[in-house]
Amino acid sequence: MIEPKFDKSGGLVPAIVQDAETKEVLMMAYMNRESWEATLLTGKATFWSRSRQKLWVKGESSGNVQIVKDIYIDCDDDTILLQVEQVGGAACHTGHRSCFFRKREGGGFVVVGKKVFDPEDVYK
Question: How far does CA 47 lie from the centroid of its chain?
Answer without folding.
Answer: 8
